[in-house]
Amino acid sequence: MKQFHAYQQLKAQAESLQQTHLNDLFTQNPERFAQFHVQMPGAMLDFSKQKITEEVLDGLVSMAEEANLQQWIERLLDGDELNHTEGRKAWHTALRDVSNPNPEVAEQWEKMAYIVDELHQKQMRGYSGKAITDVVNIGVGGSDLGPLMVTHALEMQQNSNSPDIHFVSTLDGRQLQSILAKLNPETTLFIVASKSFGTIDTLSLAETAKAWMLSSCGVETSAMRHFIGVSANPQKMTEWGILPQMQLAFWDWVGGRFSLWSSIGLTIAIQMGMDGFKQMLAGAHEVDMHFKNTPFKENIPALIGLLGVWNTNFLDLAGQAILPYDSRLKYFAGYLEQLEMESNGKHTKRNGEFVDYRTCPILWGEVGPNAQHAFYQLLHQGTERVMSDFILFKEGQGSGERATFHQNLNIANCLAQSRAMMVGQESDDPHKHYPGNQVSNTLLMTRVDAHHLGMLVAMYEHKVFTQSVIWNINPFDQWGVELGKKIALSILECIDERNATQLDQSTQGILQQIWEHNA
Ligand code: F6P
Predict the structure, then answer these.
(1) From the CB of 195, is ligand 1 less than 6 Å away?
(2) SS3 state at 363
(3) Are residue 213 and residue 326 in the same domain, yes or no?
């Protein structure tokens, strides 16, 4: 990063700002909020509680310009082959242009709409002729986290004819077992969601589900009426036994962690109907256009990205907390863990050289009011300096006096925490001393609905992209997860053969204890 013209100046500004308390920045500038907040319809970013000045912002924007961020954004939206290590486009934005759809995408929407209609009209029937009442999505990573996060967040917008939706992802089998125990095979439909259709987690669970179905209906062709496949690999779906009319497609140019916008989002469409699904796409598309057409100083995703770079590379903060103040966003931080850390958790530049600067920070989070009673202690009085994103909605859930009371309590808590982190508290008692000075963004959005959730996710996608451009890394591959998968297969062989002598001592020792216990 030292090649950027603004780098040395930003370093010097960071050193001086390290000595300045956030409180002083507010005292010195009564216009601070006015100066450091931006908005677009439906969203406002307040970044006045970041340790920045106008000069810092200018430096960050000049870095983005020098890195050709604008050209990169255009290449992303035009579907250039940006994922060069896998020779693919990263064209998830093409999935959400609802008013001008790509024909291949529109064809899949039609197939999805047909399935959704059949389910809502109770016309999709199982092997015994009974209508489907439960849908189980089997998938992991991007084939699980997006649909899980969205269907949980938008439960209140559920179509009254929607079947119940369940998610299974963990290969230990327990989650699947406990869901199956409550379901009737005659009325259960499985969605096997896997971009590669080669992930052992998903396929092992799908095999168990198939065995459960077969043990009830006895005939393979009847059992397979209960399985929809969603994949970018139709051949593997067919080999596994998914019937041609039960297959939904997407393409290698949709990355796993960006796939909720594709037919991987089928559960979202089932829950809300295609209209709701398309509202989510349209919200994301609005952010795509904002990202492309808005100067960086007013560009919400670009700013969130650049502020993250400032905090990571200049102020040396190593943690990023995600704190949504709405219980409906229970799975949002988990979703972002994959989006951000699988994308930018890299140590290699595009050209293969190792980086000599920090990239993606450790990101974690939790619904704010719960996190207050869990890890906020560290944010207030710990030794780590952490950046936080508070996410708040203007409208609450429900109506009536109690609903208003809870909404106000929620707003008060969100604002109290970001303020306490900034202001701190002097005390003669060192145990009660709060240093404050912890930086944060507050993203204020109108409400939790399909449109705004689409916007929110797209903002973070483009934040990640902005950072990848500055860090000069490919955010669209994930080679780092391959090694563990390979080793797991070889350890599984050792377990099957009950011979671990070629493994390291620690692995052998642990296996030995397990074998002795189960002997
Ligand atoms: O192992 C990581 C990963 O490849 C993710 O990127 C992906 O979302 C997940 O596994 C699931 O992959 P698939 O959809 O191909 O089963």
Answers:
(1) yes
(2) strand
(3) no
Same domain assignment for residues 326 and 452: yes
Tell me the per-residue pLDDT of 207-236, one tens digit each, with 9 for 90 and over.
999 999 999 999 999 999 999 999 999 999
Ligand 1 midpoint to CA 207 (Å): 18
256 lines ligand 1 (CB under 6 A): yes
Task: State whether 484 and 410 are in the same domain.
Answer: no
Same-domain pairing of 116 and 173: yes
Q: What is the mean pLDDT of residues 489-514?
A: 95
Q: Is residue 75 part of a domain?
A: no
Separation of 518 CA from ligand 1 center, angstroms? Answer: 32
- Kindly state whether residue 282 falls inside one of the protein's structural domains: no
Is residue 399 scored above 90 in pLDDT? Answer: no
CATH number of the CATH domain containing 215 = 3.40.50.10490
Query: In this predicted model, what pLDDT tens digit does every residue of 41-69 receive, in sequence order?
Result: 999 999 999 999 999 999 999 999 999 99
- Return the percentage of the chain with pLDDT > 90, whole number: 98
- Any atom of ligand 1 within 6 Å of the Cβ of 230: no
Residues spanned by the domain of 203: 92-275
User: How far from each other are the two terminal CA atoms of the chain, in whole angstroms?
Assistant: 56
Atom of ligand 1 lying closest to residue 482 CA? 1
**Residue 15 covered by a domain:** no
Tell whether 267 and 323 lie within a shared domain.
Answer: no
Distance CA 329, CA 368 (A): 10
pLDDT at position 337: 98
| DSSP string of 124-193, one letter each residue | -B-TTSPBP-EEEEE--GGGTHHHHHHHHHTGGG--TTPPEEEEE--TTSHHHHHHHTT--GGGEEEEEE
CA 236 to ligand 1 centroid distance, Å? 15
3-state secondary structure of 496: helix
* Ligand 1 proximity of 345 Cβ (cutoff 6 Å): no
